[in-house]
Each structure stands twice: as C-alpha cells, then as structure tokens.
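Reopening this ticket.

The earlier resolution said the output was attached, but the attachment link was broken on my side. Pasting everything inline this time so it's all in one place.
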Amino acid sequence: MHQIDYDLNIDEICKIEGEAGLEIKVRAGKVEDIKFKIQEYKRFFSQGIVGKSAIAAPQFLARICGTCSNAHILASSEAVEKALGVQNTKQTDILKKLMINGLMIRDHALHLYIFALPDIFNRDSLMDFDENDPTEHQFLHDALKVKSAGNKLQVFFAGRSVHAPFAGVGGFTKIPTEDPKQFIPILEDARPAVLRLINIFNERMVEFERKTHLLAIRGNDGWNFLEGVIKTTCGNDIAEQDMRKHLDMKIIPYSQARGYQYKGDSLMVGALARLYHNRDQLHERTKKDIKNIYDKFSTINPYMNNVAQAIEILHSIDETIDILENLKLIQEPRAIPTAKDGKAVGVIEAPRGLLYYNFEIENQIIKKMRIVIPTAINQINIERDIGKIVEENIDMNREELVLKIEKLIRAYDPCMSCASHFLKVKWDIA
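Inline output:
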C-alpha cells in the first residue's frame, strides 16, 4: 500500500484559453482533495445585457470570447429568433452552417496545432519547432494552411473570423457577391494536412478511461452543429429547450465558474461526445479516411477529444466542399420578427461543446438572460479525471505526472484565454 504524501500546486495553467490553477492533496497514496480553479474574474454579461435590444444582443454577446465569438453569435441569435418568431430562409440556414464549419476548422486548428501539438514533439510552443526537421517543418506549414482555410470561410460569409459583423438575428446584413467556389481548392489543399493531424494524435494517444456521461446534439437528418436533439450515454433524449432542466448547477467556492452535473454525476461535452453519438453521420468521405480509428469512439477517453477535433475539421471541410459545389447565393434581406415579446432557448455545438442561451424578451428588449458555457459543464469532469490520473500514476516522476495532467486539461480545450508557457508548479512534499 502506498504511503506517499504530497501537495501539488499549479498557480497558473496556460496554453489554454484564460486563467486556471490546480491544487492537489495526496495522503497515503490517495487523492484527499483536488481543486481545479477557473480564475478568470466574472464579467457579468448576464446582467450587462439586460435592457439591450434583442436584435443587437448577439453582437454584444460575441465579446464574451475572443476565439469562439461566432459560436456565441449563432447560439444567441437562435434564441432571439425563436422568441420573436423569426423564420429564417433556407439560404440563411446554409450560410450559418458554412459559418459554423469555418469556425470548427479554425478553432480546432488553433487548439491542436498551437496548444496541443507541441506536447507531442516535446516543445514548449510551435515557435520552437525546427524548420530543418522535415516532420516539424511540415506541421508548421500545415498549421498555417488549415487555420487559414477556416479563417477565410468565416471572413467571406460572416465578415470576420471573430466577432463576425454580418451575422445576426434573421440572417446576414451582407451576402457575398463573389463566387464561393473559389474556396474549394483551398479546402482540398488542406485535407492532406488534416489527415496528418488525425494520424499523429491517434498514434500518440494516452490510454485512459473513466466512466462519465457524454452529451451532444444529434441532427435529425444528418450531422448538425446547430439543431437537433441532445443525446446522452444513458439513452435519454433531451429537447434543446429542456437542456437546463436536466443539468444540476453546482457552486464551486474556489472557482469563478459554476459547475454542472447530470443525474448526480459529472459529464463531458465537446468533440469526443459528438463523435460518440454521431460518428455514423460523418461525411462519407471523412468516414472512409478514418475507418481504422472509427470504432475507438465507442469508448470514453478524454484524450481522444484531440483526435475527435481533428476529425471534425475533416468533416467540416468535406461537408463545406459539397455545399459550395452547388451554392448559388441571392441578395435577400434579413427576416423580420413577428413578435415583440417572447421566451426561448438557443442551443448549438460550439467547438468545446453545448452552448446554451435562454432569453426573456419584452418589447424586443432583453429582460433576462441565462447562459451555460461548455467549459463550465466540463469543469467537474476535468477535476475528477485529474484525480484518477494522479492515483493511477502515484509513483510517476513528478515532471512526467505534471505533463500527463497538462495533456489531459489541454485535451478538453477549456476556453479561458491563452498564454504561451504552461505551468508554474510548486511541489510541497509532506
């Protein structure tokens, strides 16, 4: 029986989005206490949006995040549209699908190449890659190529890759007049790079599993990041408007973010959850290229979230190519609200998982807003996974154990604003 005692204090977790810390107390080889702390100060968007125009709200709410801001535009727009009886056109639905596909390509590429890939090559950052090494040279150029493809799609269809000015309630303020087929060769050129990305993360996979709940949207007629029913690993289907009723909010005294549980236990959302529930709905071309790892997504390994993100890049590219081949855009106005008052929920799959908005609107003015973010949903699950990893590797060299924990946290891709160097660790041996 282990009699190891130690305290692990990580004051600053970087190479993720924002500020977080970690405290672990081990006594007699068991994790006695663990605190995964989200340290970003609250910005009170839920209160700040009250009194603002519902039509203008999505552009305000985009400022919640600098990397997945366009996901906030899409989710909050959906909630306002449902509350005020806005009926989007078929073209608007297609443009929103292209916008979220571009976001998935760019955002996943940012995480995988800039934050996660350096771990595989034992580098502090992508900037440390050796241009004279053929493999590292290749991945440097792949990073720019793939991320650029996602950026260009969002700029073309939504105006910018972050804080997109064209997208909003009822449609788009500006419809592109140039031929969108110009992006097909750009996307085709990026495919081999994405296949390399999938393969390297799959080959370097860390084996780990802890039973948990996985929740994700499943489209009614194929893969869909924007609409569908929420599937669970325990077999329950949850309507989007009922999502919040099934999540138990937990106040975490040492964290600035609230946590959530499902059926009294922790849960995970994100790319892994989407692949678990929807891999049969992937684009046929994507499925053909990942057939050797397709079945791996029947298990729950949070490190597989990186592989799942890379596969979602490939799916988004393949689906977008299909759409662009037959897309003919027409100039049309945004749809007009048919009501002044209403209550509604908007739920989409942001890059990091389920993003929930709930609005109460009177005279087209926001009276109340509730929001649930993916990282808040994942917070308790991350904490419990870390505890299990520490106990399973209690004799591991401390530096190796810290790196293993870092990789786990990065695999979740928590959204809290990023920095370039990862950890400051203080070991206090009892």
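Reporter confirms the inline version is readable. The domain at 45-377 is CATH 1.10.645.10 (Cytochrome-c3 Hydrogenase; chain B). The chain is about 40% helix and 20% strand.
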